[in-house]
Write a structure and sequence with these properties.
This protein has 221 residues and is of the alpha/beta class. It has one domain: Rossmann fold, CATH 3.40.50. The protein has 8 helices and 8 strands, in the order H-H-E-H-E-H-E-E-H-E-E-E-E-H-H-H. The strands form 2 sheets. Strands 1-2-8-7-6-4 form a 6-stranded mixed β-sheet. A two-stranded antiparallel ribbon has the order 3-5. A hairpin with a 4-residue loop joins strand 7 and strand 8. The protein is globular and about 45 Å long.
Length: 221
């Protein structure tokens, strides 16, 4: 759901498919914006999936350079790990459409659209809040749902990019995970139908606000 907003703002997008492409560090650092999305793997799987080590280093490089970076789900966990925070299994998997509780700062900032809008939760791991980071959101199951650093550096454990009209691909691709977690695919499907439009509108507005913050950072830097 983020691509249409990026296109309307005049951005061109290049996709890198984790583990199946060659990373170009120079291009990564030269890009005006970067987004690290999610996946079924975890930060702790780097020994079995070496590409995660390279993703972690690229994530650290943008953070240290003060460049705009949006991390979603695994992307947020990589940001936390790159900043020296612990990433570990949560109390239980948090899967399904729900809400987050915003801090007072977040309620007036980039995440303000989530005051009355749902998000998609789909994670088993969580992270400690990195040193120097500002907590922005939490849920009953996951105290650290979002954090920010400088302008344009935003980590979201939950999904604001998910297209509810494509929910079936999530349900099919993660059928074993859903079964293991005791999550009823029919409930997730119905919630996607009922809540998807509101989630998409909020996610796209968050993207617009993030882009505005990134521009402000660029102007000041």
């Amino acid at each position: 759901m983020l691509a249409p907003v990026l296109h309307e703002q005049g951005a061109s997008i290049e996709y890198w498919d984790g583990g199946r492409c060659r990373y170009d560090r120079n291009a990564w650092l030269e890009a005006d914006l970067a987004v690290v999305l999610g996946g079924p793997l975890g930060v702790g799987d780097a020994d079995r999936y070496p590409f995660l080590k390279e993703e972690l280093e690229l994530t650290r490089a943008r953070l240290e350079a003060g460049l705009p970076l949006l991390g979603v789900c695994l992307g947020a966990q990589l940001m936390a790990a790159a900043l020296g925070a612990r990433v570990y299994p949560g109390a239980k998997k948090e899967i399904g459409w729900g809400s987050v509780t915003l801090t007072p700062e977040a309620a007036e900032g980039v995440l303000a659209p989530l005051r009355d809008a749902p998000v998609l939760h789909w994670h088993g791991d969580t992270f400690d809040l990195p040193p120097g980071a500002r907590l922005l959101a939490s849920s009953a199951l996951t105290p650290h749902q979002a954090f920010s650093l400088g302008f344009g550096q935003l980590a979201l454990q939950f999904h604001v990019e998910a297209d509810a009209t494509r929910m079936e691909s999530w349900l099919i691709g993660h059928c074993c995970e859903l079964a293991g977690a005791g999550v009823d695919a029919r409930v997730v499907r119905e919630d996607a139908r009922r809540l998807g439009a509101a989630a998409a509108a909020a996610g796209q507005e968050i993207c617009r606000r993030w882009l505005k913050e990134c521009r402000r950072c660029r102007a000041q830097c």
